[in-house]
Design a protein that fits this description.
About 35% of the residues lie in helices and about 20% in strands. A hairpin with a 6-residue loop joins strand 2 (about 75) and strand 3. The chain contains 17 helices and 18 strands. Helix 16 runs antiparallel to helix 17 (about 460-475). It is globular. The strands form 4 sheets. A 10-stranded mixed sheet has the order 8-9-10-1-11-16-12-15-13-14, with helices on both faces. It has a 4-stranded antiparallel sheet with strand order 4-5-7-6, covered by helices on one side.
């Protein structure tokens, strides 16, 4: 039946037929079996390059990290209020210093007791550039951590960094110091150990990871103990295979389902479809470096032509789906400092795009475009570029491979998405691509300096003004193509209690079978 489902899933018109045939009756049986076993099976299209949250850069790694590890602080996704997690309380001593009183009685999954040594070791390890944390923007603001006593820690930032609490409530997890010092990131990937509501009991890199509820999870955590006993995560790159598994009852939850397929699955009585806008933005990078492998992209007119070639409104309406909105700058609107005020707009105008290319003396232009997800959207972008005379060669890669192409200056155009690790501040977004970090293929020193000024000022008005000017320059010079926010369509078994959040975080500890 799974093979039949897969074959039909390859033809969109078959989805409704499947829903009205015997598959509906048989699909409920596997789901019922998982309900009885108190297990949830989740499929995702990307595999993490490393399960250690500091050496991962894809959403599934962030999801695993939030369920397996804890942070000093927790941000409530409904109220955005900060609550104590591994820290009971904290106090801002001065502009660069925060002191934390830690929770007692917490244990890691390997039985190691949590205390100040774990916080100090973790923060000092990730603060050192030589340890090569993948997303430097998450950690490069840290100067040091000091132990004041067994359950008290002082954290110092390099510069004034008003977003520190937001990061400590997000991507900055705490590792067990004795274990981590012994095994390092490699060992933490092979046999992950955290203190979160779920622990890893089996991991096959590139294939699957299995989590089990942590029965000893501390009762005062705002996360709460997991209600589902076991979470089985499978890495399935092919979207159609994921769809077939959902239809046949082979998995209980999938996400990032394309709009057209999600619309059809709403008619399947054994499934539920949940959707909504997320903080994830979609954009194209344009390699305008002095030594770019595509010299035509150094011409501002060519970059503006690429912007005018894309019908973003039509893509949102016909491909991306409800909950999405067109963006004019490289950030998410709710993030502190995000604005498109005064920034150049590039309405869909293929005639103008052709005129700009002609003015630049460019014809028969062929560019490589690298992408890693939402292939149907990439193909739409390719179609729009072709209509104005720009041919493209698509390189569709896993995320780590795509990032390597970009950082080694081998990319012409990129089709990217970025979820900011769910940090609601521009410092977690725009600087990753425009502040001379590894994936900056523009390197405008003025933009870099403005972004750094916004990151490190204590005055909100100064931060906002600096970010606004940086975003305006990026737009005016057409260094990139801001596209839209990305909604997520989740498809789940109808009996699974599941809530979608704008931060794109799958909170397994909240799930329960109805």
């Amino acid at each position: 039946m799974t093979l039949i489902a897969k074959a039909c899933a390859l033809m969109k018109a078959c989805a409704l037929m499947l829903a009205s045939t015997a598959l509906v009756a048989t699909a409920s049986s596997p789901a019922l079996a998982q309900k009885a076993a108190n297990t949830v099976r989740f499929a995702y299209d990307q595999a993490p390059e490393n399960v250690d949250p500091f050496f991962n850069n894809v959403r599934i790694g962030v999801i695993i990290g939030a369920n397996v590890w804890d942070t000093l602080i927790y941000r409530d996704p409904d109220t955005n209020a900060y609550k104590g997690q591994l820290a009971k309380s904290w106090k801002q001593i001065d502009d660069k210093t925060i002191e934390f009183d830690l929770r007692e009685g917490v244990k890691f999954h390997n039985g190691e007791e949590f205390d100040a040594d774990d916080v100090v070791y973790t923060l000092n390890f990730i603060a050192k550039p030589e340890n090569k944390v993948v997303t430097q923007g998450n950690v490069n603001w840290l100067e040091k951590a000091e132990k004041l006593d067994k359950y008290k820690v002082r954290v110092t930032t390099k510069e004034i960094f008003p977003a520190a609490i937001e990061y400590l409530a997000g991507p900055v997890v705490i590792h067990p110091n004795e274990y981590y010092e012994k095994v390092g990131p490699k060992g933490q990937n092979e046999k992950p150990v955290g203190s979160g509501p779920y622990k890893v009991i089996n991991y096959v890199p590139g294939k699957s990871i299995t989590l089990e509820a942590n029965k000893d999870y501390f009762k005062d955590s705002p996360k709460k103990p997991g209600k589902v006993g076991k979470i089985e995560i499978r890495f399935i790159p092919d979207r159609q295979t994921q769809m077939a598994e959902a239809l046949s009852g082979g998995v209980d939850l999938i996400m990032h389902v394309p709009k057209d397929q999600a619309d059809q699955l709403k008619a399947v009585p054994t499934l539920q479809v949940v959707s909504g806008e997320t903080m994830r933005i979609v954009f194209m990078q344009i390699n305008s470096l002095e030594n770019t492998p595509a010299p035509a992209l150094k011409d501002e007119r060519v970059r503006k032509a690429i912007n005018h070639a894309i019908d973003r409104e039509a893509m949102v309406k016909n491909i991306v789906g409800e909950g999405s909105r067109v963006l004019n700058t490289i950030c998410f609107p709710s993030q502190f400092g995000c604005t498109d005020e005064g920034a150049a707009r590039y309405p869909y105008d293929p005639a103008k795009a052709k005129a700009l290319l002609a003015e630049a003396g460019v014809k028969d232009l062929t560019l490589d475009i690298v992408a890693y997800r939402e292939r149907n959207q990439t193909e739409a972008l390719i179609g729009y570029l072709q209509q104005v005379g720009i041919k493209t060669n698509l390189r569709f890669l896993q995320y780590a491979a795509m990032r390597e192409v970009i950082s080694s200056n081998k990319a012409n155009l990129t089709h990217q998405t970025w979820g900011s690790f769910s940090v609601n501040d521009v410092s977690a977004n725009t600087p990753n691509y425009f502040a001379f970090r590894t994936e900056d293929i523009t390197k405008d020193a003025t933009v870099r300096d403005l972004l750094n000024k916004g990151n490190n000022s204590v005055a909100p008005d100064i931060r906002k003004a600096a970010y606004q000017e940086a975003l305006k320059i990026i737009a005016d010079k057409a260094y990139a193509v801001p596209l839209y926010s990305l909604p997520v369509y989740y498809v789940a078994s109808k009996d699974l209690g599941f809530k979608a959040y704008p931060d794109e975080m799958v909170r397994f500890w909240e799930m329960a079978w109805k």
